[in-house]
Design a protein that fits this description.
With about 290 residues, this protein is of the alpha/beta class. It is built from 13 helices and 9 strands. Helices cover about 50% and strands about 15% of the residues. The protein binds nicotinamide-adenine-dinucleotide (NAD). The site of nicotinamide-adenine-dinucleotide (NAD) has 25 residues, from helix 4 and helix 11.
Length: about 290
């Protein structure tokens, strides 16, 4: 049994921390929200008081925070007070440059750190079935895997520091692009008088097939579990997709990568979001295209 400081007990972190408790670890819960800490304590965690106190006695720290600046601020405190040899796992989705900078700072201070962003939403966080994309050294990955295994079912070593974040935003940029393309095709099929189920039956077995079509179809009917069947309740909210696309475009600019389709996807999701659809599933963009 290890002592693990868990910082950031929001929609995702709350469930993840409880899966570490179920895995037999002592979890020190830390969040700016007293309610979030109380909920974790009710589930078997211990109140960790604050970042400095919690990491001073922990073998590992897991962070699940909103964005890069929160991760940078929290780790500045972590490195001040952490026990020697403590492992750092940042599971937040943040920009690649910040992930690499914080990881370099960890190495300078003598700590092993991995970036381990997740795929899967709150249901997977609660169920312990997340996918983790991990960036870090081989030794860091081996140590991190033992902790992540309690919270996920697929854990992949993507490469060195920042590679987990890179994999996550490249994947989500591709998802946005295939979703918009799939929405366009269904909207055009309708205008051409083609029945949606018939088009699905053909295209899902032809070269237009993709995950966006066969696992998350943006029209009601063909795929029973897709959010289209429940008025585009998420699922994966438009605000989250837009956040990931903004991170992808920032990374593309800093790596000098050509991403014209990614840029167009960002512009379309920005427009859909400004129309007030932030909380709708990202597949709801079909209604904007229509
Ligand atoms: P959230 O806003 O629900 O939770 C973040 C928590 O961090 C909050 O409870 C907040 O109080 C806490 N926090 C912020 N600053 C803090 C600080 N300095 N010290 C301690 N606690 C602090 O967000 P979420 O939905 O849980 O998402 C967390 C991360 O996971 C984000 O990076 C998000 O992009 C990523 N993610 C979310 C989903 C999803 O479906 N929600 C899916 C995949 C990835």
């Amino acid at each position: 049994m290890a002592t693990i400081a868990f910082i950031g007990l929001g929609n995702m972190g709350g469930g993840m921390a409880l899966n570490l408790v179920k895995g037999g670890h002592k979890v020190l819960a830390v969040d700016l929200s007293a309610d979030a800490v109380a909920k974790a304590v009710a589930g078997g965690a211990v109140d960790g008081a604050n970042v400095l106190d919690a990491v001073s006695v922990a073998d590992a720290v897991v962070t699940m925070l909103p964005a890069g600046q929160h991760v940078r601020n929290v780790y500045e405190q972590v490195f001040e007070a952490a026990k020697a040899g403590m492992l750092c796992l940042d599971c937040s989705t943040i920009d690649v440059d910040t992930a690499r900078a914080v990881s370099a700072l960890a190495a300078e201070k003598g700590f092993e750190m991995v970036d381990a962003p997740v795929s899967g939403g709150t249901a997977a966080a609660d169920a312990g079935t997340l996918t983790f994309m991990v960036g870090g050294t081989g030794e860091g990955f081996a140590r991190a895997e033992a902790v992540l295994a309690h919270m996920g079912k697929t854990i992949v070593h993507a490469g060195g520091a920042g590679a987990g974040q890179a994999a996550k935003i490249c994947n989500n940029m591709l998802l946005a692009i295939t979703m918009i393309g799939t929405c366009e095709a269904f909207a055009m099929a309708e205008k051409l008088g083609l029945d949606a189920q018939t088009f699905y039956d053909i295209s899902s077995k032809a070269s237009g097939q993709s995950w966006s079509m066969t696992s998350y179809c943006p029209v009601p009917g063909p795929v029973a579990t897709s959010p289209a069947n429940r008025d585009y309740e998420p699922g994966f909210a438009t605000a989250m997709m837009l956040k990931d696309l903004k991170l992808a475009m920032g990374a593309a600019a800093s790596a000098d990568a050509a991403t014209p389709m990614g840029a167009l996807a960002e512009a379309l999701y920005q427009a859909y979001s400004l129309q007030g659809h932030n909380l709708k599933d990202f597949s709801g963009i079909i209604n904007f295209l229509k």
